[in-house]
Amino acid sequence: xxxxxxxxxxxxxxxxxxxxxxxxxxxxxxxxxxxxxxxxxxxxxxxxxxxxxxxxxxxxxxxxxxxxxxxxxxxxxxxxxxxxxxxxxxxxxxxxxxxxxxxxxxxxxxxxxxxxxxxxxxxxxxxxxxxxxxxxxxxxxxxxxxxxxxxxxxxxxxxxxxxxxxxxxxxxxxxxxxxxxxxxxxxxxxxxxxxxxxxxxxxxxxxxxxxxxxxxxxxxxxxxxxxxxxxxxxxxxxxxxxxxxxxxxxxxxxxxxxxxxxxxxxxxxxxxxxxxxxxxxxxxxxxxxxxxxxxxxxxxxxxxxxxxxxxxxxxxxxxxxxxxxxxxxxxxxxxxxxxxxxxxxxxxxxxxxxxxxxxxxxxxxxxxxxxxxxxxxxxxxxxxxxxxxxxxxxxxxxxxxxxxxxxxxxxxxxxxxxxxxxxxxxxxxxxxxxxxxxxxxxxxxxxxxxxxxxxxxxxxxxxxxxxxxxxxxxxxxxxxxxxxxxxxxxxxxxxxxxxxxxxxxxxxxxxxxxxxxxxxxxxxxxxxxxxxxxxxxxxxxxxxxxxxxxxxxxxxxxxxxxxxxxxxxxxxxxxxxxxxxxxxxxxxxxxxxxxxxxxxxxxxxxxxxxxxxxxxxxxxxxxxxxxxxxxxxxxxxxxxxxxxxxxxxxxxxxxxxxxxxxxxxxxxxxxxxxxxxxxxxxxxxxxxxxxxxxxxxxxxxxxxxxxxxxxxxxxxxxxxxxxxxxxxxxxxxxxxxxxxxxxxxxxxxxxxxxxxxxxxxxxxxxxxxxxxxxxxxxxxxxxxxxxxxxxxxxxxxxxxxxxxxxxxxxxxxxxxxxxxxxxxxxxxxxxxxxxxxxxxxxxxxxxxxxxxxxxx
Amino acid sequence: xxxxxxxxxxxxxxxxxxxxxxxxxxxxxxxxxxxxxxxxxxxxxxxxxxxxxxxxxxxxxxxxxxxxxxxxxxxxxxxxxxxxxxxxxxxxxxxxxxxxxxxxxxxxxxxxxxxxxxxxxxxxxxxxxxxxxxxxxxxxxxxxxxxxxxxxxxxxxxxxxxxxxxxxxxxxxxxxxxxxxxxxxxxxxxxxxxxxxxxxxxxxxxxxxxxxxxxxxxxxxxxxxxxxxxxxxxxxxxxxx
Lengths: 856, 241
Prior knowledge:
By secondary structure, chain A is mostly helical. The longest helix of chain A is centred in the last third of the chain and has 39 residues, at 817-855. By secondary structure, chain B is mostly helical. Chain B has one domain (21-77, 100-232). Chain A: The chain crosses the membrane at residues 7-28, 439-457, 469-488, 518-535, 589-609, 630-653, 673-693, 705-726, 746-774, 786-813, 825-850.
């Protein structure tokens, strides 16, 4: 029986990743792309239209929201004057969610709509599938023209996306968002020389400073307008050179943002502010076709200033303006405002027709039925949108015969422009792309996982049904909650609400058992509940109230002395615990010295890191210490911390074997060292939370929990702490600030692990803390402790996964599918694969096994 | 394990019995009118509660207090009056207790229970804050809501059990046998807790605002708990295992 249930549990856990992968491959289909470079195909309209421009300067200002350039509170005075006199043509370029840099750069270079999968790849950038080296982009087209070099200055995302593409490049990385100036000066210093150079045809600049200011101080921060003036100055510098220098007279300057930002200065989601970056085409040559626009533009609440185009529309537009065919995977539509640049009506027809034919090849790849025989009139009656599109395409082709220069041609141009937009809409709507059999297969796999997990957990559940009832109810209600978008967005409320009640229940039970004195219990009750309440308020998270004042980000950044007192207390708590138990072979004094040394290495790193990452938090002694630091690089410091922790860990593992028995403290020391590592991976304002959790775990340790209580507590506190640390189900809440600690180059594995640890800091802490309780239960003679603990967790994970999958499938046409449910699925993946399989099973089993060695 | 089992058995002998209502016709009738009265009054004031919670909750305290006092005086055995033998007395000597004496002690008990309920209000508010009530805003809302919960949940308990410390220890670990009073109190608290569920939904309705749903949950939970405790599960105890 026990063998059978062990087997069931193993199979259940093996099924979890399988179910996740099958479902993900159906839900985020890998879009097949057409390979090879596009070439001009022969058409009956004479030669390819002559391109008005031969060089392009592509200036990306990260997070340049439309109103930063167009509204009346803008630092872009010079650009606005160009818009008035017609030398600049303004647009709002709609960016699709996820609004983070890499997928946006992909959209604006390939013209395609990047799949949601790119979000994951954005965090694993060296993945070759995310590289654009092998894809057709406008950069590849410009390179293929061989009319000049490619140069690039700014965000090194471009260097990762286009390895080996650029002849001259200087990449900057955005390690520290507190850096407002250095990242931009690194770009600007190259401009004067490059403007004199005549050897390039493409210059890309990507400024990060404005995005950093947004993240730090929001869109109305004090540094925002000066930064906009600085960017405006660069536009002026380039524009004046374009007027003065002969070799630049046919240069096109494109000023754009890759995405916008919301009112808190963050991005990633699909709020109007995040999806509305500015897009300006600038050249003296545009004056003849533009009468100028009114600036500053009247206030737009939804940031939709001037004509709204898709970001991908930049690609075919650049193609026509610079003279190359639209890249093969392009879904962008030529922006018709630029048609007057060509006089001959055949040129205009040709430009749009080439654009449309290129898109038709993609449509045909996706819908083989497209373009066959059929009606070409009364298209709206056809029902299915793909048939409608096909019908209209036939009608457009018909109209092509006997097209003349007059009004008829104008009408045809309007018709094809409309058709392009409709084709674009159809192809970017993802509804048609779900692979339903795979979605179902994923769900079936998770049903099996759930059934097996239930089978494995059933003896325990049946033996003490009353005790297991809370976890069963929590599991089921959590699953049901996945169908309501607001509960997914505000998931923290569920965990806070259940955790408070569960802790209360736990204390009531303890009161009945009468195993500890009622005085101590009363104090524990009050302290545990107060600590939980403080942790709840530490970081405002979710969607609706994410920007509201809280303890960590608002209160403590105003009371910085208190912040550092709490941070130091956290280190001291850890220090005293290590010193009193950590080095049993040495004398007390030596042990204290070791622990102090370790803590000081860790705390000086934290100070130096905070000095770079958020210098505004430093004050008083902390600031003095950070300022006086000698110039050891942060990478070195972080490595020193990690190596010191590792040495202490190895030492403890080695010496611990000396005196085995139930009083061996090695497991507690391992927990303390892990906690120190977690502290190192947390933002300064979150470090005190670990102190709160230490207090909680100390008190819970005395409550004499049973196995099922420990498992339930572990699950609840893991989720609760994740949200208390500021986590949520939104992509924009992923904290990357500690992801590069001790990593100098680009190392996917290291960065991945560090990112996970720094975002799942609370859950990892609780996995380790509850393991100490599990070990005590095991020492007391309880059987199959680890098995039952894992069975409870597997049951929850399998059930929640199943419900998330069902919700994503049923709501796949829901308005919020890409903004709420898809991110939730990604988070479920991280919870199941990372927290469940690696931490709750992997780490806990390892620690449990070690504990068995030391304490038996 | 065996030793703790023995302990449980020995303490089981001392466990209390569920509270019986007063053996009068009035008591039997009013205990049915009481929940109807509470719910219909609540229903009548609901719109006003949504529109102006502070004022409505404040003006509702006195009527609620009167209802609860009536309920206590008419239906419940006051603390100190001998509870257990009532049944026997009814059979043997129905009119033995001096009614004057009884009235004075009832008035005193009502007063005593009211004062203690008042004192428990800030404690209940603190518990609400620990469970997630806003602390920097809406304090008055929380306090007034707690006053209602105190009158619903605490007042009858205090009126019946007074300062019987053994009984209160049982109540504190939720191990009191189910009866109308204990059931109502547990129902009231659980209802208030469940009342928080609709708050995060993005329906943007006025009634989702603090503390409307909590108070609603408390009233509905109280009535449900009173019925369940007094009828369905009378005498049963909440077992966690």
